[in-house]
Write a structure and sequence with these properties.
47% of the residues lie in helices and 16% in strands. It has 28 helices and 19 strands.
């Protein structure tokens, strides 16, 4: 009566891996390439040992939507999920009097609930009536429920959640009214992104937050008649209870009023989104035997039963038995969500049973909840800049200040893209709990600056004019967030698919890294400017997916280079080095590729850049400077470590000001990005370290290099450091400087000497 389901963990994981990818891939014989291209496939450039080639095709927008929602339920920990897109439930056709099968987009079941969802998607934002679809779905509900109950038995007492999940669709007021009348809930774009984010951050415990939205007030199986000893008193004139309870008993009835959910019934919303880093820290603390003596603060949304056993009127307190609520969304968390969800975080070891102290008010207003939250959290210890940048998307989302609002929209968008199942940035952002790697190397703080500076969500005003809207600016912050997220997701999906291997390698391939992504964000804004000038269209009037498609011809040279360039060629253009100009230089190299095919594409600053970078000799010199500086840095570090061991930084660098410079620059970097402090030192700093009397004996065999213009008889021939530093400035700031023939000759001579000396040095 039910289609094929993923029931075991292995089956669920296998299905998730298939659904996570936004594109399908397969192998074909090269002779079949033309036919595949006609069918919408494209070659990835990968060729297998057997001679076959790999092709890929983006999944349809409706399939992507189904996969995204399916993945949410997977992360929420549903035990059974449908396999494939042809899942069907057998029902009785009343007109024909026979059994037929009806297709269902998403099916999920756990011990207490069943989710049956229809997914409706559009390639671009549209308003369409779905009266017919809603009515057909409503007519099938009873038959679906009957078939599911027949499989699992009436004793299971399953609760059904009927959903229509939409993407890029604005339902009419009549549609929404009809769906509500039929007890069919609608999950829109914003709701889906929210559920993706909490599922990713909280994991299986987020299921209760999900269920609270659709089963508010419904009784929860096996939670009836649960009493705990409690104290009842008045706090600030409000009735409150103090008690101890197991976390697993409180979790099902708990609800966090997150600002990101924008639940109309929850205004004013005050809770920030739960951070996975804190949950993991709490979980590890509990595994070590830790406990929390401070209380979680909640608000019961309905009256509770309290059987008084003893009363102390003079103290205005009572002792008795409290009957806890037994329905979804009845205990709203005011403070302590991280502590509560931390108990539910997955752990590698079996955790002993815990109890947590709780103070519960009885049905105080939402305003009082928010005031309590503000009072408790008003005086907090200073947190890191990276965490503040992530929180900015929640704290300043609706700020009247332009800079605060745009920064918040940018931060929030990047956090959503990190949680977007199958998206280009899914799990690519570093968080405090992730181990640094080349693949997981993006940071919200760095890319937030790139988004704001690009002007995609507007530019600040001046004394003479108000702030100017950007290509992703819409009437509200919420709509701007949606447009920006969709635009970045669609654009970078093209970048990723141009060369999946290069994208997945991350920092080591010089593409999916902070500088690379920031450069592409700037290119995206410049391409929008060019599209407006070239076609007289207003990019802000186009839907994000449509806009990216319109940019396709201009972007093709970049995609072609990403797909076909050798690693050495790609590195020569895009590998960053110390003091190289970062994202601006990366952007200009991207813009050069576009201009080679579209000469009229001349974003600000490109002409100056090209005037000093157009020749092949200049590009070779850039690569040579980078290579030489890297070699010197590594050599100096190696010699110091060999001579001074673990104390190489303190003992090997006698100059305090140089040591402090390296440490200061290290501290300026994001905590998870911090490198060895010596790597932040400049060429002139390395020179001072090398020539110091304590070190010169160790460096003289390799670094005492007499250049053509040096005087004979010098005790130390190290002036080449200064010349190299001057040449480095040409590469770092090409708009104001250019190479000369003497620079090329110097680099050739120096590199040859270093190659000869380093090859035989210790």
């Amino acid at each position: 009566m039910l289609g094929t389901r993923a029931i075991t963990k292995a089956e669920r994981v296998a299905e998730f891996k298939k659904r996570k990818q936004r594109f399908a891939q397969r192998k074909i014989h090269p002779a079949d390439r033309e036919k595949a291209v006609a069918e919408g496939w494209s070659a990835t450039g990968r060729q297998y040992k057997d001679g076959q080639i790999q092709i890929e095709k983006t999944k349809s927008h409706d399939e992507v939507l189904e996969n995204r929602f399916w993945s949410v339920l997977y992360h929420l920990g549903y035990d059974e999920l449908n396999i494939g897109r042809k899942f069907k439930i057998q029902v009785t056709d009343l007109d024909k009097g026979e059994e037929v099968s009806k297709q269902v987009d998403v099916f999920a079941k756990d011990d207490d609930t069943v989710v049956i969802a229809e997914c409706k998607s559009s390639a671009s934002k549209s308003t369409t009536s779905f009266q017919k679809d809603i009515m057909e779905f409503a007519a099938l509900k009873k038959s679906f429920a009957k078939s599911v109950t027949a499989v699992y038995g009436k004793d299971a007492k399953l609760k059904f959640i009927w959903l229509i999940v939409t993407r890029n669709i604005i339902l009419t007021a009549n549609d929404l009214k009809r769906a509500e009348h039929e007890n069919i809930q609608v999950v829109g774009d914003r709701d889906l992104r929210y559920f993706e984010e909490i599922a990713r951050n909280i994991g299986k415990a987020a299921k209760y937050q999900f269920l609270a939205e659709f089963l508010e007030g419904a009784k929860i199986k096996n939670l009836e008649d649960h009493q705990v000893p409690a104290i009842r008193a008045k706090i600030g004139g409000h009735l409150a209870y103090y008690f101890l309870v197991q976390p697993e008993r409180l979790l099902p009835i708990a609800f966090a009023n997150h600002r990101s959910l924008r639940d109309p019934s929850g205004n004013p919303a005050y809770q920030r989104l739960v951070k996975r880093a804190r949950l993991n820290q709490i979980s590890a603390f509990l595994d070590r035997g830790g406990f929390f003596p401070n209380s979680i603060l909640v608000n019961f949304k309905k009256r509770v039963r309290f059987d008084c056993k003893q009363s102390y009127e003079d103290r205005q307190i009572e002792f008795g038995d409290l009957s806890l609520p037994d329905a979804y969304k009845t205990a709203w968390i005011i403070d302590g969500q991280h502590r509560l969800y931390g108990f539910a975080a997955e752990t590698a070891q079996k955790r002993r049973s815990n109890i947590i102290p709780v103070i519960a008010f009885e049905n105080i207003s939402r305003g009082i909840e928010a005031d309590l939250f503000a009072t408790i959290n008003g005086k907090q210890a200073k947190v890191s800049k990276s965490i503040l940048d992530e929180l900015e998307g929640d704290l300043k989302f609706d700020s009247e200040d332009f800079k605060s609002r745009t920064g918040a929209i940018a931060s929030r968008s990047l956090a959503l893209l990190d949680a977007e199942n199958g998206g280009p940035f899914n799990d690519r952002f570093k968080t405090p709990e992730t181990e640094e790697s080349d693949a997981v190397c993006l940071t919200i703080s760095e890319l937030k600056k790139a988004v704001v500076q690009s002007g995609l969500i507007g530019r600040p005003g001046t004394k003479d004019r108000p702030p100017q809207p950007g290509y992703a600016t819409r009437n509200t912050s919420e709509d701007s967030l949606q447009a920006l997220s969709d635009l970045l997701s669609a654009y970078f999906d093209k970048i990723r698919r141009a060369n999946l291997d290069r994208w997945e390698l991350g920092r080591s391939a010089h593409l999916c890294m902070n500088i690379g992504v920031a450069g592409h964000i700037r290119l995206l804004a410049a391409l929008c400017d060019h599209l407006a000038a070239d076609t007289k269209q207003d990019p802000s009037q186009l839907e994000p997916n449509e806009l990216v498609e319109q940019l396709g011809p201009y972007l093709d040279p970049v995609l072609k280079f990403i797909a076909e360039a050798s690693d050495l060629d790609f590195e020569a253009h895009f590998k960053p080095i110390f003091g190289s100009g970062g994202p601006p230089r990366y952007f200009y190299e991207l813009a050069r590729l576009v201009q080679e095919k579209f000469p009229q594409f001349i974003p600000s600053g490109l002409s100056e850049y090209i005037s000093t970078k157009s020749s092949e000799d200049s590009r070779k010199a850039d690569e040579q400077v980078r290579r030489v500086i890297d070699k010197i840095h590594l050599h100096v570090i190696g010699v110091l470590k060999q001579r001074y061991g673990d104390r190489y930084y303190t003992a090997g660098i006698p100059q305090k000001d140089i040591r402090m410079k390296g440490l200061d620059r290290q501290q300026d970097a994001e905590v998870d990005e911090q490198l060895d402090p010596i790597t932040y030192l400049d060429v002139v700093d390395l020179k001072k370290i090398v020539e110091h009397k304590n070190n010169w004996l160790y460096f003289e065999p390799t670094m005492n290099i007499r250049m053509r213009d040096d005087r004979r008889g010098n005790a130390k021939n190290i002036s080449w450091f200064d010349t190299l530093n001057d040449i480095r400035k040409i590469m770092a700031h090409p708009a104001n400087r250019s190479y000369k023939q003497a620079h090329y000759d110097f680099l050739d001579t120096l590199e040859a000497e270093l190659e000869k000396r380093f090859g035989t040095s210790a």
